[in-house]
Amino acid sequence: MRITFRNSVGMAAVAxxxxxxGVGSYAPRGGGVAQxxxxxxxxxxxxxPADKVAGLNAWIESYKGRARAQGISDQTLxxxxxxxxxxxxxxxxxxxxxxxxxxxxxxxxxxxxxxRQTNGRAALAQYGGILSSVEATYGVDKEVVTAVWGMExxxxxxxxxxxxxxxxxxxxxxxxxxxxxxxxxxxxxxxLQAGDIDPGHMTGSWAGAMGHTQFIPTTYLAYAVDFTxxxxxxxxxxxxxxxxxxxxxxxAKSGWQRGLPAAVEVTLPPGFNTGLGGKGKRRTVSEWQxxxxxxxxxxxxxxxxxxxxxxxxxxxxxxxxxxxRNFHAILRYNNADSYALAVSHLADRLKGYPxxxxxxxxxHPGLRIEQRKEMQQLLTxxxxxxxxxxxxxxxxxxxAIRAYQQSRGLPVTGQPDAVLLQQLRRG
Length: 427
Known about the structure:
Elements: H1 37-40, H2 50-69, H3 74-81, H4 88-95, H5 104-111, H6 114-126, H7 128-138, H8 142-153, E1 162-163, H9 164-174, H10 178-194, E2 203-204, H11 217-223, H12 241-253, E3 263-267, E4 283-284, H13 285-290, E5 294-295, E6 307-311, E7 320-323, H14 325-333, H15 337-351, H16 369-381, H17 395-407, H18 418-426
Antiparallel strand pairs: 1-2, 3-5, 3-7, 4-6, 6-7
Helix pairs in contact: 2-9, 4-9, 5-15, 6-8, 7-8, 7-12, 8-12, 8-15, 9-10, 10-11, 12-14, 14-15, 16-18
């Protein structure tokens, strides 16, 4: 689950037994990477200033008073904050988020890459029994749940490695979106008090997203489920069962309708009035068909009486989609049309449907992902290091483009395009 203001696994091998602390006990399922709690506390080797350390300690003591007033026990508070120190890494990550300049089509190309599809099919094969049970229980397609899993953590590979209490406390103390982080910290303390996890295993992103499908603490409290029946809602362990079921539960409670696609690509007739498109402008499928809209590929349209909206994100020259209530359920998970389209399309690819028939507007000036990779390779070969070849046009690539353009006496735009690629190919 992405944090709207923009969003390596470390699992300790030995669980911390809480004993008589009154906040339960935790033993991880499915093994894990042998790391100690100390090893997963990123940032401790950065020697934060003494005033930051003292300031955080004072802030924690004040925060404990507010938490006690809301029902958090002293045992939970003492255990939660026992090993917390000021974490510069959480601050660094909050201030240095990657900013990629991507069109919708570039985003979809990366999100629904061949590698993500291949790994998604492998995940479906490995966890097919669990995913089928989740689908039967919550009515959410197993491929959709798998697609969310792939989008959020690359099928469990990137669940977040920061100690959550420490990161949230550091950000709350610094006042960065303070209300948000203080509320997430309180929710995290409630999770600890319930005994679902202990501080040593409660890891996540700098912004508080946790587990296989990146629930923030408040979302966890509202939607996480114990699908394995072991008494804990464990989204952190290598076993993804509770995470996958929790995601399906979230979508189901967000209005998911069993058996309905979220988004289906369609073709528009010549001269179609694109002003008819947009969210909130609902028509049944049969009404759209009467206006000349047709199925674009093997993916069938929703039933004729289904209420839908028409998205035309690329204008008349790009792909168009009929979206259903299930699209809006995905938006509850991450309120971005690009994300919901990616989840829907990735799920369709995992079901065996073909790619989009018109994924890239004919008049779009950008480069496809393989062309962007080639551009990065050529820039680096010419002495303008992009710091990696991944097709993502972030600040390193933009700076390399600018330096190259300046060295050749070209207009310094920093923008990747076909003209730039041709110039690089010529040397």
